[in-house]
Structures are given as structure tokens and as C-alpha cells.
Write a structure and sequence with these properties.
Strand content: 15-25%
CATH superfamily: Metalloenzyme, LuxS/M16 peptidase-like
Number of domains: 1
CATH architecture: 2-Layer Sandwich
Strand order of the largest sheet: 1-2-6-3-5-4
Radius of gyration: 18 Å
Structural class: alpha+beta
Oligomer: single chain
Helix content: 25-40%
Number of helices: 8
Number of strands: 6
Shape: globular
Order of helices and strands: EEEHHEEHHHHHEH
Amino acid sequence: MKVNQWSLSNGATCVVANMEESTLTCIDFWCKGGSNYEMKDEEGMAHFLEHMIFKGSKNLKEGEFDLKIESLGGSSNAATGLDDVHYHVLVPPEKIEEALNLLLELLLFPTIEENAFEMEKEVVLEEISQNIDQPDEIIYMKLLKECCSPHRYSRPILGNKETVRNVIPTQMKLFHKKHYVGENCTLSIAGKVPKQIPSIINNSKLKQLKSITEKS
């Protein structure tokens, strides 16, 4: 297996692992925008934003991304951690370019529309309610609080109900603008890839990702 790594002019890192025997290819976008980067009164923002990313973009209506990825024979998912958040799709190798552009469209240009925002807020609040009733989660969060306080690692990734209730779309858009920048992001692709994959990536919407010096 050969692994290639390079960076774009906006600071985004690209990593490709060619696995010729693979029947599926994984496209995984990582961003240093996990809960560790939330400020006071932003607790839960990173995870809430992960939800809102899938609610549509400049050129994709809500639900359209999932339908298009499924039509390619693929699947998608995402997860928010303490340090990072990542979004990935698994598709047949011949669908890489189309899937990549769909994923980047969703990530770079989310609309964060107010009606969808308020509806999804209720979903996130319910997720918090369910989470705090799980014995293993209670123990895990107590461990982090006791061992890591006052570091941000001591706070729950999902945030708390008060901060999530009070967050507004403008705050989330600013959080996205601040953290989803080239220097914070890595695009990794693993599986069977075409020889022209560097060109596909270099000419994809990834190059439209702002750098830290451009985001303002």
C-alpha cells in the first residue's frame, strides 16, 4: 500500500492510501473543530454543527446529499470528538470524484437555515437527555471531569441543555467560519483510487476552503 501526502495552498492536508484490492473507497474529511475548541457558552456547538451540516448547503437541499450518495451505491456518517469532527462517505471506486464534490459542497457551504436549525435543536436536546441517562456515559463524564478539570476535556461533547437552547444560527455560522479553514482540515482517501486522484483533489472544491488569513 502506497500513501501520498501533500498540502494545498490554503493549508489543507491531503492524504491518499491506494489499496488496489479494495472494492470500496472511503473519503474522510477531518477538521480540528471538536468540543475542545468551544468557548464559554458554546458548549455543544461542534456536535450541533455536525448535525446542521447535513441539513443542506448552498447547492444541496435538505436530504439531497444522502439521496445522491445512496444513488452512487454509498453510505455516509459523521462523528464529533474532543479534538476533531469528521465526515466520511464509503463509495465504489468509480464514484470517487462525484462523492468527493458532494461531501465538500455540504461541508464548505452549509446554509444553517433558521427553521431547520430550531427543529434540529430539539433533536440534539433529546440526544443530551438520552445520553445523561446512560450509566456508562455518566461514569465516563465523571472520570473526565475528575481527571481533566478545568481543561475543556472535562466537558461533555454534546454540551448541556442550557447552552444548546441559547445558541443561535449566527453563532454557529461564525463557529464554522472560524474552524473550518484549510489549516485545520485534512482530507483522507483510502481504497482503490484512480491514477489521477491528485488532480481530482487539487481541482475539487477543497481548494475553495479559506485559509486562516483569508477567513476574515
